[in-house]
Amino acid sequence: MSNTAEDVEEYPDRIKELFIGKTLFITGGTGFMGKVLIEKLLRVCGDVKLILLVRGKKGKPPKERIREIFAGPLFDMLKELRGPQIINNVMAIEGDVMLPNLGIKEEDRKMITEEVEIIFNCAATIRFDEHLTKAVLLNVRGTKFMLELAKECKKLLCFVHVSTAYCHLNERILYEKPYPPPADPHKVIKTVEWLNEDIIGAMTPQILGTIPNTYAFTKALGEALVVEQRENLPICILRPSIVIPIWKEPIPGWTDNINGPTGLLIGAGKGVIRTMYCQEKSYADYLPVDVLVNATLCIVWVYMCKNKDKSKWIFNITSSANYKITMEEIIILGRKVINERMPLNGVVWYPGGSMKRSKIVNNICFFLFHIIPALFVDALLVLIGYPPVLCRVQQRIWKGMEVFEYYANNQWDFDNQESLDLRDKTLNPRERQLYKLDGDGIDYMDYFTKCTHAARLYILKESDDTLPAARRHMMVMWFVDKICKTLFVGLVLYYLYQKLLSPLMTSLF
To answer: Nearest-5° angle of CA 402, CA 405, CA 407?
Structure first.
């Protein structure tokens, strides 16, 4: 029997009680997960002090960057609930994970070591094609500097390191345990410090070996550094899978980037992605960012309050053990949402295309349906006095699809029993409601629609009043698409007739 609202209120919120009054230090707070983590902490706890490591960017000091972030729609619910003064609970100190000793001033470092009780190390470059030097300095050396800082913190209760479920790609089943790194992280750090970027770039394929990109390589090295300090620090490692837009709160569908599935959705919705090399029945592991943040807060509580011997310290935060959605289902849902519910503005071709099981067939289709149309459109743009754009876009799509193909055509599974036990055996009904960790009740069509709507509003800056025009444009593109396909089929049949059937008939009659 389900609990009523009154019954649920009778239970305590032990997660909130843990964080109230605490001082937290967060790196990566200006990133996707970091923003959602900050919003949730402030909205649920209120009385919590957050110290953020923020680098100056484009001439803007850290405090101004934080004010700009808080002015975004993600924090509207928070400000309505707690008041605009809640921003005073956030302190931004200038620094950079890539710099020696994090680039922190001495007085700021002293304040951190005196006050901080929980550290969330979320900073990372998530670009798969990042230059190895930068990826190592941020994901590996930056983690090393964070661990050194943590050792100086006099009140430290927990060091939370956000890794990834896709950093040990040679393991087809990833368990909640440490794995050996692909190289010695200390030696790799010294190598990129000693050699210039050109030499490192030339050596990258040999350094990576069988690992497909610098992201997976450096995240594995960073995790190894954390594992080394297991006996010296109260460490908790989180391995989330592919993080996708918000499911529930505070804004369903919200994201701040076009990485991963969101980029594919926009590219296909705009009609510029027509083909991809992928097995229809394969599936990936997706995790809404609000579920990840909920799990992060709950895991910290379990680690600190329920796990006295600290024997449980690595958690795979994944979903595919319970919820699987195939690539074919994603494509069908995405196409239905874009074509029928939430069309995008400026569609260059009616959204369509398909997945190809053969890489050769996919490459042929990419040339026919990506490169040739791009060359044609760019030629027209040059003729009327505009700079070419589509060929450059298609180059980026090609690079992105190479990364996507590796993950789409390989299968990994994740053992997340510790996380499941947390959800099923540890949380009370109120906590399960406030910190939703499962996917029960998810409507994929509704979720995809909200993701597309949020992408229109917050990424593409396409307001709702443009939807009627977008729907009319989509109808025109559907008509044009049908005409083009009919003409193409007609030309093929005519060619076959001229080359095969006509000579045959002439010889017979």
So the answer is: 120
> How far apart, in whole angstroms, are the C-alpha atoms of residue 380 and residue 348?
14
| C-alpha span between 178 and 7 (Å, rounded) | 40
CB 410 within 8 A of CB 280: no
CA distance linking residue 500 with residue 477, whole number of Å = 34
Separation CA 373–CA 380 (nearest Å): 11
Tell me phi and psi for residue 272, to 5 degrees.
-95, -10
Q: Residue with structure tokens 């029945």? A: 281
Residue 162's beta-bridge partner residues? 238
Query: In this predicted structure, which of 24-38, 87-101, 150-164, 366-380 has the lowest mean pLDDT?
Result: 366-380
b (16+ CB within 10 A) / e for 151-161:
eebeebebbbb
Q: Is the peptide bond before 250 cis (omega within 30 degrees of 0)?
A: yes
What the block records as the tokens of 33 is: 């997960």
In the predicted model, is pLDDT for residue 117 greater than 60?
yes
Please name which of 140, 304, 159 lies closest in space to residue 223, comparing C-alpha atoms. 140
pTM of the model: 0.90
What confidence tier does 2 reach under pLDDT thresholds 50, 70, 90? low
- Give me the amino acid identity at 326: T
Residue 327's pLDDT is what? 83
Unique residue bearing structure tokens 């040339």: 367
More confident residue, 209 or 263: 209
Q: In this structure, are residues 116 and 23 in contact, taking their beta carbons and an 8 Å threshold?
A: yes
- What is the Cα–Cα distance from 215 to 208, expressed in whole angstroms? 10
Q: Which residue has the tokens 């997945």?
A: 355
- Axis crossing angle, helix 390-408 with helix 261-269, rounded to the nearest 10: 130
Two tokens at 246? 């918000």
Residue 372 is classified by DSSP as H
Instruction: Supply the Cα-derived Rg of the chain in whole angstroms.
Output: 25
Question: In whole angstroms, what is the distance from residue 66 CA to residue 490 CA?
Answer: 59
Tokens of 54: 């923020």
Q: How far apart are CA 167 and CA 16, in angstroms?
A: 31
Instruction: Identify whether the C-beta of residue 103 lies closer than 8 Å to the C-beta of residue 95.
Output: yes
Q: How far is CA 234 from the centre of its chain?
A: 27
